[in-house]
Write a structure and sequence with these properties.
By secondary structure, the protein is an alpha/beta fold. The protein folds into three domains: about 1-95 and about 175-255, P-loop containing nucleotide triphosphate hydrolases (Rossmann fold, 3-Layer(aba) Sandwich); about 105-175, no CATH class; about 340-365 and about 385-555, Rossmann fold, CATH 3.40.50. Strand 1 and strand 2 form a beta hairpin. Helix 4 crosses helix 5 (about 130-140) and helix 16 runs parallel beside helix 18. It is globular, with a radius of gyration of 25 Å.
């Protein structure tokens, strides 16, 4: 690491205005980034991480926000009073950014190669031939498996990890001195996440870049950063080396963030949330012992299974020419049993068939072969009218709570809608009372009934989604990546809520995720899927402690461990 300061943020204050009111979102923020250094900025949603990065890039919305105090100095030049023309010469060229969601930062109607070429056309005087050569070279640097194919592909034709590599190639195209990476691995597989972290570190060394790495996951930051800045509600809470922050954190909030992730060595009955920790950092954590777990499992598995999946196969066909069809098998000969009151974890990388299997159980996709026995009946043979009744019994919690809620319906009406569709309860007055009870169950209140989805945080929206799911009093709930896009702290709250609801209502869960740490914490049994097939199946703790298959070992090794 070089001692020369590349970027210095000095006493930065930022305010946003709405309805003639000013809300301060950054308070007296100060930090330095040295040349060839990686600074990790960590904190929950709303802590001001992204606002700070947008201020550095001069991308704060001009009509509703302003820097009220402080300065941002880059390479001895103040950026706060720079003209837009001068900023353009720096932005994308000397300071570049990788955004959180690759799909929203790529143009869906433009081939990936052209999008990266556009950056080089704007900032260099290279010829068209040289630009194409440089783009292909960048695609090799970011380890895209087939650079030529990626060059001529549209974003939707690539996987999430490949799209993120395209975005990284765009960001490093002009060999920037400072790279801002804003949550670049959120919602990516743990294995892809590990690859992206490794890629950023190698690019940093190759180009002697400095990186501002923003995340809500302290364990992840520990794997890449030299220095760490912890933020909370727009303020700097703690600032120091990775070693200091992890081994001797001074502030209770930092300790709370470190403790919010499900531990891998022990099994807690309840995850400590940020507020739990701040209220009582010495709280006694109740541990589920091997004996307690064994006794619970003996009781679970003494009954007949609630669901039995037998040799299920699901294939998709696409035309490859005039007469030829190609077959893609998403789920291949999968069999397992699920018992009432059990949580079965389903884990694997993107594209392994997890969600397809969930959709097949829900009868949203029809299996090509095999049986799905629910309460002793093969539901693959049911007529449409019977499947409608089955919807009450088997429900789904979606990955993206915002996309799964109708923006025109209030939270209360969104929860009431499935009750009306299935004629539950006598009238809307009774239904409204049930909705208020459900809102209270998921730690919301009656005043939230008339609010719209955009008025809630991500964690609150997920609670509304859960309330909507349990409104029909189902027996089996499929949680499809239902916490993958949430902050570590909010994730802990939602996982605790799911376990509380399971204890109180006797729900049975299929918990789908690519994050083995979360799945291990939630699950009794674990199914590891790879390329449509079951790679490994057994007790969640046993599989984590002594995996048999190399694929499972790879997933476990990819979990950010912290220091």
């Amino acid at each position: 690491m070089n001692n020369t300061i590349l970027l210095s943020v000095q006493h930065l204050c930022v305010s946003f205005s709405s309805n003639k009111k000013e809300n301060q979102v950054l308070y007296d923020l100060s930090f330095d980034i040295h040349k060839n250094e990686i600074l990790g900025v960590v904190g929950e949603s709303g802590s001001g991480k992204s606002v700070a990065s947008l201020a550095i890039l001069g991308l704060l919305p001009s009509k509703i926000s302003k820097i009220t105090k402080g300065d941002i100095v880059y390479n001895n030049t103040s950026l706060t009073n720079l003209t837009e023309k001068n900023y353009r010469a720096i932005r994308g060229n000397e300071i570049a950014m990788i955004f959180q969601e690759p799909m929203s930062s790529l143009n869906p109607s433009m081939k990936c190669g052209k999008q990266v070429a556009e950056i080089l056309r704007q900032h260099t005087s290279l010829s068209a031939i040289k630009i194409k050569e440089e783009v292909l070279s960048l695609f090799e640097k970011v380890k895209l498996p087939d650079p030529n194919r990626a060059y001529s592909s549209y974003p939707h034709q690539l996987s999430g990890g490949q799209k993120q590599r395209i975005v990284i190639a765009m960001a490093i195209a002009c060999k920037p001195k400072l790279l801002i990476a804003d949550e670049p691995t959120t919602a990516l597989d743990v294995t892809v996440q590990k690859e992206i972290i490794s890629l950023l570190k190698s690019l940093q060394k190759e180009y002697n870049m400095s990186i501002l790495f923003i995340s809500h996951d302290l364990s992840l930051v520990s794997e890449i950063a030299d220095q760490v800045l912890v933020m909370y509600q727009g303020k700097m809470i703690e600032y120091g080396t990775v070693d200091t922050i992890f081994h001797t954190p001074e502030k209770e909030y930092t300790k709370a963030l470190i403790n919010a992730r499900p531990p891998l060595k022990i099994r807690l009955k309840k995850l400590p949330t940020i507020s739990d920790f701040l209220n009582d950092s010495n709280q006694i954590k109740e541990i589920i012992t091997k004996e307690m777990r064994k006794e619970h499992h003996q009781h679970l598995y003494s009954k007949p299974p609630l669901l039995e999946v037998i040799n299920v196969k699901k294939s998709y066909f696409s035309k490859a020419g005039l007469f030829k069809k190609t077959e893609f098998t998403a789920v291949n000969d999968v069999s397992f049993k699920l018992y009432e009151g059990e949580t079965l974890g389903l884990v694997g990388e993107s594209g392994c068939g997890k969600s397809t299997l969930g959709n097949t159980i829900l009868q949203l996709d029809k299996a090509n072969s095999g049986q799905i026995i629910y309460k002793g009946q093969d539901i693959t043979q049911l007529p449409p009218s019977a499947i409608r009744n089955l919807r009450k019994e088997i429900q789904l919690i979606f990955q993206d709570p915002f996309a799964s809620l109708n923006p025109r319906l209030t939270a209360g009406n969104a929860i009431m809608e499935p009750m009306q569709a299935h004629n539950l309860h006598t009238n809307d007055t009774e239904r409204k009372q049930k909705v208020i009870e459900l809102l209270n169950r998921v730690s919301l209140s009656e005043e939230h009934f008339d609010r719209y989805p955009h008025e809630f945080s991500g964690g609150q929206r997920q609670r509304i989604g859960i309330a909507r799911t349990i409104a029909l009093q189902p027996k089996l709930i499929i949680c499809d990546e239902s916490v993958s896009a949430l902050d570590i702290s909010v994730q802990a709250q939602v996982l605790n809520l799911l376990n509380d609801l399971k204890d109180n209502f006797g729900f049975t869960y299929i918990f789908i995720s690519h994050d083995l740490a979360v799945v291990k914490y939630m699950s009794d049994q674990l199914l590891v899927m790879n390329k449509g097939q079951i790679e490994e199946h057994g007790d969640a703790d046993n599989i984590y402690n002594s995996p048999n298959k190399e694929y499972t070992k790879k997933l476990i090794n990819a979990i950010p461990k912290g220091i």
